[in-house]
Amino acid sequence: MKKLFTLVLMLAFAFGLKAQCPLTQAVDFTATDCHGTEVHLFDILDGGQAVLVDFFFTTCGPCQQATPKVVESYYAMGCNMHDVYYIEISDRDSDAACQNWANTYGVEYPTISGAAGGGSICNTYQIGAFPTVILIMPNRQIVIQDLWPINNAQTVITALEGQGLQQHDCNAVTYDPQVAINIDQVLETEVTVTFTPNADCASYNYLLATESEVQQWLTMLGMELPEYLHTYGFPAEESISHTFTELTPDTEYMVYAVPADPDGNLGEVVQETVTTTNGGGGTDIMPDFTATDIEGNEINLYSILDAGQAVFINFFLYGDEYSEAPMNDVLESYRLYGCNQHDVFFMEITPNGTDANCQAWVERFGVQYPTISRAGGGNDIAQAIPVGYYPTLMLIRPDHTFAVRDIYPPTLEYILDAMNGEGYEQFECEDGIAETEGQSLSLYPNPANDFVTLKGESLGKVYVYNTLGQKVDELEAQGSEIRINTAAYENGIYVVKADEQMLKFVVKH
To answer: What's the burial of 201, exposed, middle or buried (CB within 10 Å: 0-12/13-18/19+)?
Structure first.
């Protein structure tokens, strides 16, 4: 009789009792669930969610009974979108068996099969009986080593709420608040920044400081960076531009912003590095640059200078009344000095205007010379010089040196004084670069490679211009035909002018 009692007792321990996970500290794992989704445990924990893991196998009777209750609690706790993230792991089943299991019991959270690494994970966590349900907190501590018995969904919910995890509606709106930082202008003691929130961002706070200052404040107050910015940063809701003043020259600063969603939850901190200019005036040599204007033309400063033209640059800020004021005088001087076809080549550069902003600017003022936007390289050019104030009208000699760093005040009188001081002559503008209707000119081949032949009744002087209005060639025709050597021309569109007529042709090597 005693032997029979002992056998029954052993069977009770084997089938009626469950062994808990002996670990108290989580071990990381990465696996791909039966639907092809990669699951990385520590990434989830580091994102702030607790993780509930249900260890099972598909032919386990107690697992079949417990799973519908775990699934019901999953919906009550927010469907993996809030405080807790559910995973189930099989120690032996195939992906196909796990997919059938998930379809049968309505499991929407990741199911990791034995074939995908579940067996190894079960061994790591020393799971000896099934089901075993554990709860891992974001600090990687296993606070529930075996949730059993699971009488109903409320058993799971109550256990999770006992760890401070809250119920959530699965249909509740989730948000991804973000705010973009755009550095508009950098001066010696000022930095202008535009902050732009996305649709999920109900509010945000921003700040500019040196990194050492921020670290000192965080240590002194015992706060994390998001909390500090939210508490002490400048508050905002809409897109704004802010000019930070009284900064130290030649100093690296950090621009920070932390967004918040409509429920007040903080998003990720964004930051940009900016260094104020040194204000030392720089070298006498204008640095070279290559940029793209809003028409898509590549502008290389030294190529223009080396071809013998001086360069006049108007550095302006889009939307700035002070930059708008001298535009009529700048345009008049452009016309007086031959519309980029003679001694001086005009262009304008903005560190803050987009291509669309610049297009509106060009149409408003009737600008006919190249305009370089921020996207085309305007901000990089302005910082490399550096440009301290706007507008700044600059005149550069063909030898790359500054004739005048800043023509001030920016009026026609002072622009003419600067030009006269360098001996640059005034010229009438050519008739423009446009194809003449009803012309008697003809040319071939078009497109051209090494040469193009121009024919007309009385050619005389022949001029070739690129799309920027620069004269690239001047020839004298003897009679009604001339062959123009285009081997040295860059690929692109050109205009030939002869006998007060114009014709376009393309060079393609």
So the answer is: buried
What pLDDT was estimated at residue 172?
A: 65
212, 201 Cβ separation under 8 angstroms: no
Regarding the domain with residue range 179-275, which homologous superfamily does it belong to in the CATH classification? Answer: Immunoglobulins (2.60.40.10)
End-to-end Cα separation, the chain, in angstroms: 104
The pLDDT, as a whole number, for residue 439 is 53
* Whole-angstrom distance, CA of residue 27 vs CA of residue 48: 17
Which residue do the tokens 């007792």 mark? 9
Read off the tokens for 269: 């901190």
Class of domain 290-422: alpha beta
The token pair at 14 is 């084997």
Q: How far apart are CA 20 and CA 14, in angstroms?
A: 14
Judged by DSSP in three states, 274 sits in: strand
Residues of the chain with CATH 3.40.30.10: 17-161, 290-422
Residues 368 and 364: their CA atoms lie apart, in Å, by 11
**Tokens at residue 169, please?**
């509606």
Coil vs helix vs strand at 262? coil
Nearest to 55 by CA among 108, 99, 94, 92: 92
- Edge-first strand order for the sheet with 461-466 is 471-476, 461-466, 492-498, 501-507
Do the bridges between strand 344-349 and strand 371-372 make them parallel or antiparallel, or are there none, so unpaired? parallel
Rounded mean pLDDT for each run of 10 residues along the chain, 509 residues in total: 38 45 95 94 96 97 96 95 96 96 96 95 95 97 95 96 93 83 86 93 95 89 92 93 89 94 92 80 77 92 92 95 93 90 94 94 92 95 88 94 90 91 86 47 79 83 82 86 89 80 78
Instruction: Pinpoint the alpha helices (H) of 373-435.
Output: 378-384, 412-422
Angle, helix 327-336 to helix 412-422, in steps of 10 degrees = 30
Tell me the CATH class for 17-161. Answer: alpha beta
Query: Residues 6 or more apart from 147 whose CB is under 8 A from it?
Result: 133, 134, 135, 155, 156, 159
CA atoms within 13 A on the CB side of 38: 5
Global confidence as pTM = 0.39
What residue spans in the chain does CATH classification 2.60.40.3080 cover? 442-507
Give me the pLDDT at residue 41, please.
97
Which amino acid, 401? T
Which residue spans of the chain are classified as CATH 2.60.40.10? 179-275
Could you give the C-alpha distances from 262 to 151, 174, 205, in angstroms and in order?
37, 10, 14
Structure-token match 């696996």, residue found: 31
Q: Do the beta carbons of residue 28 and residue 44 sit within 8 Å?
A: no
pLDDT tens digits along 25-51: 999 999 999 999 999 999 999 999 999
pLDDT confidence of residue 435: 41
SS3 409: coil
Question: 442-507 belongs to which CATH class?
Answer: mainly beta
